[in-house]
Amino acid sequence: MRRLAPVLLAAFALFSAACEKKSQPQPSGEAPGGQAAQPGTTGTPPSSDSLLLGVVTSLTGAQATFGVSTRNGVEMAIKEANEAGGVKGKKLSVRVFDDQSKPEEAAQSVTRLITQDKVLVILGDVASSNSLAMAEKAQAAGVPMITPASTNPAVTQKGDFIFRVCFIDPFQGFVMAKFARENLKLDRVAILQDNKSAYSIGLTEVFTAKFKEMGGTLLATESYSQGDTDFRAQLTSIKKLKPQGIYVPGYYNDVGIIARQARELGLTVPMMGGDGWDSEKLFELAGDTLDGSYFSNHYSPQNPDPRVKNFIANYKAAYKSVPDALAALGYDAARVAIAALERSKDLSGPAIRDAIAQTQGFEGVAGKISLDEQRNAVKSAAILKVANGTTEFVTTINP
Amino acid sequence: MSQLLQHLINGIASGTIYALIALGYTMVYGVLKLINFAHGDVMMVGVYMGYATAFALGREARGSLGGVLLIFLVAMGGCALLGFLIERFAYRPLREKPRLTALITAIGISFTLSYGFQLDIGFLPGSAPRAFPQIIKPAQWFTLGDPEFPDVVLWNWQVISLVVAVGLMTGLQFLVYRTRFGRAMRAVSFDHRVAALMGIPTDRVISVTFMIGSALAAGAGLLYAIKDTSVSPLMGLYVGLKAFVAAVIGGIGNVPGAMVGGLLLGLVEEFVVGYAASTWRDAVAFGFLILVLLVRPGGLFGRVAAEKV
């Protein structure tokens, strides 16, 4: 036993070290070429004939479908731009890193993209917790970053190099509170929040304030931690309060299980959520238990706009699935970046940043994008209803 | 009071599952002095085997007794085979090598399985979590208080998992202490070289031990999936680590210790989630381990063996 102790200790150390293992880079498309200007220096032209964008997103782990959709959207935009002749006579290429749904991995990947690959613009991630870690690094290095779908306000507050092409949490919480009071006429609501995610806490705060302001009663705010798999204790406490609806601003992988267990306990009131629900996997996990629930989102595939129809058709042809909002936002983020590269006077970080900041009335597939002073997109939100394993467009709520 | 009772029920239900997995760690450690870190991932593979079988059976057959038995049999049989292969090709060649070598190999196999299952090629499921089909339709077998808003609920799957777990453990106790094979196991655990000299087929004993441990893990994994309704390739790392903690709390290498350790850990976690917050759960679980080891370095039931000189 005495001889064993160090072995065991070593094993634990190894095991925990192994859990922190380095991510495998996943280069995609052509080999990276472009030598970008050193961050902070003014434009020296790139020495090769391809412009490199970097993507960091969650291809594995808890939010895997978000990352895969984002990557597909970005790659589609790059492909289309290259077919149209590229930017400034050069082809675009993209390098994708998987952050395994972990903030620390996301930060490492950004550092690699900046120091080794010398990318011009960074795109990513979806989960706000990861984007916050990335924004820190991108801002420090002076490389512009556009997050396609992180809705937490703190992300763009990291500095003047950080942009987003989606609305922010306060708006989503505001939209759902308004919808619950005005359209669903709910008086008594309980909240189940993910206390490990900045996103979920942000939505909860604003929803709570707005819902009370509009005269509703908030019964209780229960919480869980991302990755929990047994929510019966919290749901039982909620059920006792007899709510008319439950606000669950979490991610699909938890929400699917929450919905099943709520139905098991006999809780049949509608649930409400945010864009974190938007994944085909949600319906796979929840079965029919979410029918009659609502969530706020960036776009609806049922939107009749020809631009959206086109995008959906092309996406389906390339990836054999209906694009979710994350795919649309990934596509928009990449197109905003490409348009900015086209406009910028040279390829230095500050010049590209200034070009991105000028984005006004950009026609994206997930709505018109105008960036405000805080580098956030001002746009409307769609409310979707869950029915028979898919979503139906209900209404649009404007800022 | 009713809340306490509910937490007790939940804690015992999850504790028995930990205990079942912990048994595998303890048995393998008993005969080989090896911490089989791949054990949790074998459990994960078993859960996916059950998942595939449930889908192959179709919706009707899933909830029937025969269907459930078949799902358990396939998963447990498949994992027994997997356990055999892992021991035969990864651990046996290293048996006379330093112990650390085998341990690192075990960690390697663990990562191969958990990250291999995140690939989306052929039969591999990919990284996204999936919903485990309801092979046991949840029903409230016993409630206290208002039936619509009960204070205490005893679910059918909690009873079933307790009965299955206790049944498997009783079978294992019988095997280890009441059969010829069990005697051989204990002999190999005591000193495998001398056991070999006495004519005990040590290789076969070790193989079968691995197979039993892996089959138990698969059974426990299915109970876990029925309870939590979701499966993912990384579940084995997490649950396996917890079960390993349970085995160490009870005293690694000690069969009753693994059961008590598992139950204790399940209860401790449930009370933390119930009375504090689920964010604290893991910190408290590992804190509890440290506390137990400070008081009893060999675990609750373990004996600190004097070094043979």
Please describe what this structure looks like.
The complex is a heterodimer of chains A (399) and B (309). Chain A is of the alpha/beta class. Helix content of chain A is 43%, strand content 18%. Chain A is built from 13 helices and 15 strands. Chain A has helices at residues 4-19, 64-83, 103-117, 128-141, 154-157, 169-182, 198-213, 232-240, 252-264, 280-286, 306-319, 325-343, 349-357; strands spanning 26-27, 50-57, 91-98, 121-123, 145-147, 162-164, 188-194, 217-224, 245-247, 271-273, 294-297, 362-364, 367-369, 381-387, 390-397. In chain A, the strands form 3 sheets. In chain A, strands 8-7-9-10-11-14-15 form a 7-stranded mixed sheet, with helices on both faces. A 6-stranded mixed sheet of chain A has the order 1-3-2-4-5-6, sandwiched between helices. Chain A has a two-stranded antiparallel sheet with strand order 12-13. In chain A, α10 (280-286) links the parallel β10 (271-273) and β11 (294-297). A two-stranded antiparallel sheet of chain B has the order 1-4. In chain B, a hairpin with a 7-residue loop joins β2 and β3. In chain B, α2 (39-57) runs antiparallel to α4 (65-91) and α11 (255-275) packs across α12 (281-295). Chain B starts with a helix and ends in a 14-residue tail after the last helix. Chain B is mostly helical. The longest helix of chain B is centred in the N-terminal third of the chain and has 31 residues, at 2-32. Chain B has helices spanning 2-32, 39-57, 59-62, 65-91, 99-116, 156-178, 180-190, 192-197, 202-228, 235-250, 255-275, 281-295, and strands at residues 130-131, 140-144, 152-155, 230-231. The chains are: A alpha/beta (399), B mainly alpha (309). The A-B interface holds A 1-4, 7-8, 10-11, 14-15, 18-19, 21, 59-62, 64-65, 195-196, 223-225, 228-230, 232-233, 236, 239-240, 253, 256-257, 260-261, 264, 266, 281, 284-287 and B 6, 10, 14, 33, 35, 37, 99-100, 103-104, 107, 111, 118, 126-131, 138, 148-149, 153, 227-230, 234, 237, 241, 273-274, 277-279, 281, 297-298, 302, 304-305, 307.
